[in-house]
Amino acid sequence: MKRVAIIGAGTMGAGIAQASALAGYDVILYDVSDELLRPSLANIQDSIDKGVARGKTPTAVAEKAKTAFTLTTSLAEAAQADLVIEAAPERVDLKRQLFGELEAHAPEPTIFASNTSSLSINVLAAASQRQDRFLGLHFFNPAHIMKLVEVVKGDHTSQATMTAALAYVARLEKTAVVCKDTPAFIVNRVARPFYGEALRLLGEDAADVATIDTLLKSLGFRMGPFELIDLIGCDVNFAVTQSVYAAYFQEPKYRPHPIQQRMVESGRLGRKTGQGFYTYE
Fold first, then answer.
1. Does the annotation count 150 as an active-site position?
2. Active site includes 188?
3. Catalytic residue among 114, 118, 128, 188
4. Domain coverage including residue 117
5. Averaged pLDDT, 104-125
6. Is 120 a residue whose pLDDT tops 90?
7. pLDDT score at 141
8. For this structure, is 141 an active site residue?
9. Disulfide engineering: 184 pairs with which of 36, 223, 244, 262, CB 3.0-4.6 Å?
């Protein structure tokens, strides 16, 4: 495996692309326009330079990684990679459409993977003709830093595909946890109460945002729930919560909170918009 294609140059896609380039892969980065691709690549290269400045990345590795990228707005070109990782917004219709188009151009050995955090791998795989070479590779934000990757085995994923995917994750120097295709897999299912209970406390005026975050961090969490929602994006967090709630047939403990909807509809999406539960310069 030499070439990896990332479908989507947003926060998650850029992070996966950066991690792949630093691991020595040639990276094809796809999005719908050059106006999205060019700033994404500039941010990736700037992040790589910061890694050098902090002593985290050797200069030679960084310089090679910064030249490893091919930008494209052609799915046909992206499909030529050995591994194609989709990192599009969390919409099943959009992801299935992308995989259907990729399927029309990809060579037979190409492996398809989705970075979905909550959607069924089996449902997404049905949009292609290579269900044995289809799996989930769920990275966590920021993808170039966070060590955990959920490697999700679909009902038809072959062992050869799992072996190749695990080797890819290992080369990125990340920790793989293999899981079944269950709603929200492991981490996002476990994490729902972390956000949900915090939102309920806020909604009931039991405490303010900063107090709830401080209390959770006093128990050993690196970030409070509202800090983490702002980092991930309120829109992404809300979409995943809705997906998990629907997948478990409206199980009450996974129910979204009106505060989430209000934040999204008012455009307060967190760090990426400068305003979420906190304000960012």
1. yes
2. yes
3. 188
4. 3-180
5. 96
6. yes
7. 86
8. no
9. 244
